[in-house]
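User: My advisor asked me to double-check a structure prediction for CobW/HypB/UreG nucleotide-binding domain-containing protein before group meeting. I don't want to rely on an old file, so could you generate it fresh from this sequence?
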Amino acid sequence: MLKNIPATIITGFLGSGKTTAINHLLSIKPAKERWAVIINEFGRIGVDSLLASRSGTATIREVPGGCLCCTAGPSFETALNRLIRETKPERILIEPTGIAHPLRVIRTLSEGFYREVLDLKAVICLLDSRNLCSERHTAHPAFMDQLSLADVIVSTKPDLLEACHREALRAYAEKVQPPKTALRETAYGQIELDLLDLPRTSGRTAGTPDAHRHSHPAPCALPDEPGDGGQREWLLLEGRGDGFFTAGWRIGTDFCFDAEMLARFFGNLFSMRVKGVLRCREGWMAFNGVEGELSLRGAPAAGFSRLEVINDLPLAALDLDQQLRCCLKIA
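Assistant: Sure, here is a fresh prediction for CobW/HypB/UreG nucleotide-binding domain-containing protein from the sequence you gave:
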Protein backbone atom coordinates (compact mmCIF):
# COMPACT_ATOMS: atom_id res chain seq x y z
CA MET A 1 0.00 0.00 0.00
CA LEU A 2 1.26 3.47 -0.87
CA LYS A 3 1.92 5.99 1.90
CA ASN A 4 1.28 9.70 2.42
CA ILE A 5 -0.87 10.19 -0.67
CA PRO A 6 -2.05 13.83 -0.73
CA ALA A 7 -5.84 13.80 -0.27
CA THR A 8 -8.27 16.72 -0.37
CA ILE A 9 -11.92 16.76 0.68
CA ILE A 10 -13.92 19.26 -1.40
CA THR A 11 -17.23 20.06 0.29
CA GLY A 12 -19.98 22.54 -0.49
CA PHE A 13 -23.76 22.68 -0.34
CA LEU A 14 -26.03 21.70 -3.21
CA GLY A 15 -25.16 23.59 -6.38
CA SER A 16 -22.06 25.30 -5.01
CA GLY A 17 -19.93 24.14 -7.95
CA LYS A 18 -17.96 21.18 -6.60
CA THR A 19 -17.97 19.10 -9.78
CA THR A 20 -17.13 22.18 -11.87
CA ALA A 21 -14.16 22.88 -9.61
CA ILE A 22 -12.95 19.28 -9.82
CA ASN A 23 -13.25 19.40 -13.62
CA HIS A 24 -11.08 22.53 -13.61
CA LEU A 25 -8.48 20.93 -11.36
CA LEU A 26 -8.34 17.88 -13.63
CA SER A 27 -7.84 20.16 -16.63
CA ILE A 28 -4.82 21.93 -15.10
CA LYS A 29 -3.19 19.12 -13.16
CA PRO A 30 0.34 18.07 -14.12
CA ALA A 31 -0.08 15.86 -17.16
CA LYS A 32 1.95 12.93 -15.86
CA GLU A 33 0.44 12.77 -12.38
CA ARG A 34 -2.08 10.01 -11.64
CA TRP A 35 -5.09 11.33 -9.77
CA ALA A 36 -8.12 9.57 -8.35
CA VAL A 37 -11.52 11.13 -7.61
CA ILE A 38 -14.29 9.73 -5.42
CA ILE A 39 -17.70 11.32 -6.01
CA ASN A 40 -20.69 10.71 -3.77
CA GLU A 41 -24.30 11.60 -4.48
CA PHE A 42 -27.38 11.74 -2.30
CA GLY A 43 -29.50 9.94 -4.88
CA ARG A 44 -29.02 6.46 -6.32
CA ILE A 45 -29.07 7.33 -10.02
CA GLY A 46 -25.59 8.86 -10.22
CA VAL A 47 -25.24 11.93 -12.42
CA ASP A 48 -22.10 13.70 -11.22
CA SER A 49 -19.78 11.03 -12.57
CA LEU A 50 -21.19 11.77 -16.04
CA LEU A 51 -20.64 15.50 -15.53
CA ALA A 52 -17.05 15.01 -14.39
CA SER A 53 -14.28 15.34 -16.95
CA ARG A 54 -12.51 12.21 -18.09
CA SER A 55 -8.74 12.12 -18.14
CA GLY A 56 -6.36 9.35 -19.05
CA THR A 57 -4.42 10.03 -15.85
CA ALA A 58 -7.43 10.43 -13.53
CA THR A 59 -9.72 7.65 -12.32
CA ILE A 60 -13.23 8.66 -11.22
CA ARG A 61 -15.26 6.39 -8.95
CA GLU A 62 -18.75 6.91 -7.57
CA VAL A 63 -20.18 6.00 -4.17
CA PRO A 64 -23.92 5.63 -4.86
CA GLY A 65 -26.76 6.60 -2.57
CA GLY A 66 -26.88 8.13 0.89
CA CYS A 67 -24.01 10.39 1.89
CA LEU A 68 -20.30 9.90 2.24
CA CYS A 69 -20.29 10.64 5.97
CA CYS A 70 -22.59 7.65 6.47
CA THR A 71 -20.83 5.39 3.98
CA ALA A 72 -17.45 6.26 5.54
CA GLY A 73 -17.53 2.77 7.00
CA PRO A 74 -16.56 -0.63 5.60
CA SER A 75 -18.08 -0.10 2.14
CA PHE A 76 -16.41 3.27 1.61
CA GLU A 77 -13.10 2.05 2.99
CA THR A 78 -13.21 -1.02 0.76
CA ALA A 79 -13.85 1.17 -2.29
CA LEU A 80 -11.06 3.56 -1.33
CA ASN A 81 -8.60 0.74 -0.65
CA ARG A 82 -9.40 -0.83 -4.01
CA LEU A 83 -9.00 2.51 -5.76
CA ILE A 84 -5.59 3.05 -4.19
CA ARG A 85 -4.46 -0.51 -4.91
CA GLU A 86 -5.60 -0.54 -8.54
CA THR A 87 -4.68 2.98 -9.66
CA LYS A 88 -1.77 3.88 -7.34
CA PRO A 89 -2.78 7.55 -7.38
CA GLU A 90 -0.41 10.38 -6.63
CA ARG A 91 -3.31 12.53 -5.42
CA ILE A 92 -6.90 11.87 -4.34
CA LEU A 93 -9.88 14.26 -4.46
CA ILE A 94 -13.00 13.40 -2.46
CA GLU A 95 -16.35 15.06 -3.20
CA PRO A 96 -19.08 14.32 -0.62
CA THR A 97 -22.69 14.99 -1.52
CA GLY A 98 -23.86 18.56 -1.03
CA ILE A 99 -25.91 17.76 2.07
CA ALA A 100 -23.19 15.71 3.78
CA HIS A 101 -21.88 16.53 7.23
CA PRO A 102 -18.12 16.11 6.68
CA LEU A 103 -16.99 15.35 10.26
CA ARG A 104 -17.04 11.57 10.04
CA VAL A 105 -15.26 11.35 6.71
CA ILE A 106 -12.57 13.74 8.01
CA ARG A 107 -12.07 11.49 11.01
CA THR A 108 -12.02 8.34 8.91
CA LEU A 109 -9.35 9.68 6.57
CA SER A 110 -7.13 11.19 9.27
CA GLU A 111 -7.10 8.42 11.87
CA GLY A 112 -6.23 4.75 12.20
CA PHE A 113 -5.15 2.92 9.07
CA TYR A 114 -5.36 6.01 6.86
CA ARG A 115 -3.09 8.10 9.09
CA GLU A 116 -0.07 6.73 7.21
CA VAL A 117 -1.68 5.95 3.88
CA LEU A 118 -3.10 9.44 3.30
CA ASP A 119 -1.75 12.92 3.87
CA LEU A 120 -5.06 14.71 4.44
CA LYS A 121 -4.68 18.29 3.31
CA ALA A 122 -6.79 21.39 3.95
CA VAL A 123 -10.54 20.78 3.68
CA ILE A 124 -11.95 23.04 0.95
CA CYS A 125 -15.54 24.29 1.06
CA LEU A 126 -17.12 25.90 -2.00
CA LEU A 127 -19.74 28.49 -1.10
CA ASP A 128 -22.37 30.43 -2.97
CA SER A 129 -22.14 33.40 -0.59
CA ARG A 130 -25.74 34.37 -1.31
CA ASN A 131 -26.73 31.40 0.83
CA LEU A 132 -25.28 33.05 3.95
CA CYS A 133 -28.21 35.46 3.67
CA SER A 134 -30.76 32.66 3.20
CA GLU A 135 -32.42 31.18 6.28
CA ARG A 136 -33.32 28.17 4.14
CA HIS A 137 -29.59 27.38 4.09
CA THR A 138 -28.27 28.73 7.40
CA ALA A 139 -30.91 26.74 9.29
CA HIS A 140 -29.46 23.50 7.92
CA PRO A 141 -26.73 22.02 10.18
CA ALA A 142 -24.79 20.49 7.28
CA PHE A 143 -24.49 23.86 5.54
CA MET A 144 -23.07 25.59 8.61
CA ASP A 145 -20.80 22.70 9.62
CA GLN A 146 -19.33 22.42 6.13
CA LEU A 147 -18.16 26.00 6.67
CA SER A 148 -17.06 25.40 10.27
CA LEU A 149 -14.91 22.39 9.42
CA ALA A 150 -13.34 23.87 6.28
CA ASP A 151 -9.80 25.21 6.29
CA VAL A 152 -10.38 27.03 3.01
CA ILE A 153 -13.57 28.73 1.82
CA VAL A 154 -13.87 29.47 -1.89
CA SER A 155 -16.71 31.85 -2.76
CA THR A 156 -18.19 30.97 -6.15
CA LYS A 157 -20.47 32.71 -8.66
CA PRO A 158 -19.04 36.23 -8.09
CA ASP A 159 -21.08 37.65 -10.97
CA LEU A 160 -24.25 36.96 -8.96
CA LEU A 161 -23.05 38.42 -5.66
CA GLU A 162 -24.03 41.77 -4.19
CA ALA A 163 -22.11 43.77 -1.59
CA CYS A 164 -24.25 42.35 1.23
CA HIS A 165 -23.28 38.79 0.28
CA ARG A 166 -19.56 39.56 0.39
CA GLU A 167 -20.05 41.38 3.69
CA ALA A 168 -21.84 38.35 5.14
CA LEU A 169 -18.87 36.14 4.23
CA ARG A 170 -16.37 38.64 5.62
CA ALA A 171 -18.30 38.87 8.90
CA TYR A 172 -18.47 35.09 9.19
CA ALA A 173 -14.76 34.65 8.48
CA GLU A 174 -13.81 37.30 11.06
CA LYS A 175 -15.57 35.59 13.95
CA VAL A 176 -14.81 31.93 13.26
CA GLN A 177 -12.04 30.19 15.23
CA PRO A 178 -9.52 28.87 14.39
CA PRO A 179 -9.17 31.41 11.54
CA LYS A 180 -9.55 30.09 8.02
CA THR A 181 -6.30 29.26 6.25
CA ALA A 182 -7.47 30.97 3.06
CA LEU A 183 -10.50 32.80 1.74
CA ARG A 184 -10.78 32.97 -2.05
CA GLU A 185 -13.28 34.04 -4.69
CA THR A 186 -13.48 32.45 -8.11
CA ALA A 187 -15.71 32.07 -11.13
CA TYR A 188 -16.49 28.89 -13.07
CA GLY A 189 -14.73 26.70 -10.52
CA GLN A 190 -11.28 27.99 -11.43
CA ILE A 191 -9.57 27.29 -8.13
CA GLU A 192 -5.80 27.18 -7.94
CA LEU A 193 -3.75 24.02 -7.58
CA ASP A 194 -1.86 25.52 -4.64
CA LEU A 195 -4.95 25.12 -2.45
CA LEU A 196 -4.54 21.34 -2.65
CA ASP A 197 -1.21 21.48 -0.81
CA LEU A 198 -2.25 23.72 2.08
CA PRO A 199 -2.06 21.92 5.44
CA ARG A 200 -5.10 20.96 7.45
CA THR A 201 -5.65 22.81 10.73
CA SER A 202 -6.51 20.74 13.78
CA GLY A 203 -9.02 21.94 16.35
CA ARG A 204 -11.88 22.84 14.05
CA THR A 205 -15.21 21.76 15.50
CA ALA A 206 -18.72 21.21 14.18
CA GLY A 207 -21.55 23.17 15.72
CA THR A 208 -23.86 20.16 15.44
CA PRO A 209 -21.65 17.04 15.39
CA ASP A 210 -24.61 14.74 16.07
CA ALA A 211 -26.88 16.29 13.45
CA HIS A 212 -26.21 13.55 10.95
CA ARG A 213 -26.69 10.50 13.12
CA HIS A 214 -29.32 8.64 11.16
CA SER A 215 -29.67 5.68 8.86
CA HIS A 216 -30.09 5.60 5.11
CA PRO A 217 -31.37 2.72 3.03
CA ALA A 218 -28.41 0.56 2.09
CA PRO A 219 -26.63 2.01 -0.95
CA CYS A 220 -27.42 0.09 -4.10
CA ALA A 221 -25.13 0.50 -7.08
CA LEU A 222 -27.08 0.33 -10.30
CA PRO A 223 -25.49 -1.60 -13.16
CA ASP A 224 -23.75 0.38 -15.87
CA GLU A 225 -26.09 -0.93 -18.52
CA PRO A 226 -29.89 -0.68 -18.72
CA GLY A 227 -31.78 -3.47 -17.00
CA ASP A 228 -34.50 -5.77 -18.28
CA GLY A 229 -36.16 -2.89 -20.09
CA GLY A 230 -33.11 -2.45 -22.33
CA GLN A 231 -33.08 0.76 -24.31
CA ARG A 232 -36.79 1.11 -23.50
CA GLU A 233 -36.03 1.31 -19.77
CA TRP A 234 -37.72 4.08 -17.78
CA LEU A 235 -36.66 3.75 -14.14
CA LEU A 236 -37.83 6.13 -11.39
CA LEU A 237 -36.28 5.91 -7.91
CA GLU A 238 -37.27 7.99 -4.89
CA GLY A 239 -35.35 8.59 -1.67
CA ARG A 240 -35.24 10.74 1.43
CA GLY A 241 -32.91 11.48 4.32
CA ASP A 242 -31.76 14.27 6.64
CA GLY A 243 -34.71 16.46 5.66
CA PHE A 244 -34.17 16.13 1.90
CA PHE A 245 -36.08 14.32 -0.82
CA THR A 246 -34.87 13.02 -4.16
CA ALA A 247 -36.38 11.66 -7.34
CA GLY A 248 -34.08 10.12 -9.93
CA TRP A 249 -34.55 8.68 -13.39
CA ARG A 250 -32.51 6.36 -15.57
CA ILE A 251 -33.91 6.22 -19.08
CA GLY A 252 -32.96 4.07 -22.06
CA THR A 253 -31.75 5.69 -25.26
CA ASP A 254 -34.89 4.80 -27.20
CA PHE A 255 -36.33 7.87 -25.50
CA CYS A 256 -35.23 11.22 -26.94
CA PHE A 257 -36.09 14.59 -25.39
CA ASP A 258 -36.59 18.14 -26.60
CA ALA A 259 -33.88 20.25 -24.91
CA GLU A 260 -35.92 23.46 -25.04
CA MET A 261 -38.89 21.79 -23.34
CA LEU A 262 -36.59 20.28 -20.71
CA ALA A 263 -35.06 23.69 -20.02
CA ARG A 264 -38.50 25.19 -19.42
CA PHE A 265 -39.49 22.28 -17.21
CA PHE A 266 -36.33 22.39 -15.09
CA GLY A 267 -36.34 26.19 -14.90
CA ASN A 268 -39.83 26.17 -13.41
CA LEU A 269 -39.11 23.54 -10.75
CA PHE A 270 -37.31 25.82 -8.25
CA SER A 271 -35.99 22.73 -6.49
CA MET A 272 -32.75 23.10 -4.59
CA ARG A 273 -30.95 20.96 -7.17
CA VAL A 274 -31.63 19.57 -10.64
CA LYS A 275 -28.92 17.80 -12.62
CA GLY A 276 -28.99 15.47 -15.53
CA VAL A 277 -27.40 14.18 -18.71
CA LEU A 278 -30.09 13.36 -21.26
CA ARG A 279 -30.35 12.30 -24.88
CA CYS A 280 -32.03 15.10 -26.82
CA ARG A 281 -32.80 15.64 -30.49
CA GLU A 282 -30.11 18.34 -30.36
CA GLY A 283 -27.62 15.76 -29.07
CA TRP A 284 -26.63 14.71 -25.56
CA MET A 285 -27.11 17.62 -23.14
CA ALA A 286 -26.01 18.24 -19.53
CA PHE A 287 -28.41 20.25 -17.35
CA ASN A 288 -27.43 21.94 -14.08
CA GLY A 289 -30.06 23.75 -12.03
CA VAL A 290 -30.07 25.43 -8.61
CA GLU A 291 -33.33 26.95 -7.34
CA GLY A 292 -34.53 28.02 -10.78
CA GLU A 293 -31.12 29.04 -12.19
CA LEU A 294 -30.37 26.66 -15.05
CA SER A 295 -27.42 26.08 -17.34
CA LEU A 296 -27.06 23.54 -20.13
CA ARG A 297 -24.27 22.41 -22.42
CA GLY A 298 -23.42 19.63 -24.76
CA ALA A 299 -22.25 16.38 -23.19
CA PRO A 300 -20.57 13.16 -24.35
CA ALA A 301 -22.92 10.34 -25.31
CA ALA A 302 -23.84 8.02 -22.44
CA GLY A 303 -25.36 4.56 -22.25
CA PHE A 304 -28.64 6.00 -20.98
CA SER A 305 -30.13 9.30 -19.77
CA ARG A 306 -29.93 10.17 -16.08
CA LEU A 307 -31.71 12.85 -14.06
CA GLU A 308 -31.79 13.74 -10.36
CA VAL A 309 -34.04 16.25 -8.56
CA ILE A 310 -33.34 17.14 -4.90
CA ASN A 311 -35.40 19.36 -2.63
CA ASP A 312 -35.98 20.13 1.03
CA LEU A 313 -39.73 19.67 0.53
CA PRO A 314 -41.47 16.45 -0.53
CA LEU A 315 -41.44 15.83 -4.27
CA ALA A 316 -44.53 14.75 -6.20
CA ALA A 317 -42.44 12.25 -8.12
CA LEU A 318 -45.24 10.78 -10.20
CA ASP A 319 -46.39 14.25 -11.27
CA LEU A 320 -42.80 15.13 -12.16
CA ASP A 321 -42.57 11.89 -14.10
CA GLN A 322 -45.58 12.84 -16.22
CA GLN A 323 -44.16 16.31 -16.86
CA LEU A 324 -40.84 14.76 -17.87
CA ARG A 325 -42.60 12.46 -20.34
CA CYS A 326 -44.23 15.53 -21.87
CA CYS A 327 -40.71 16.73 -22.78
CA LEU A 328 -40.10 13.77 -25.08
CA LYS A 329 -39.43 14.59 -28.71
CA ILE A 330 -42.51 14.19 -30.85
CA ALA A 331 -41.73 12.10 -33.92
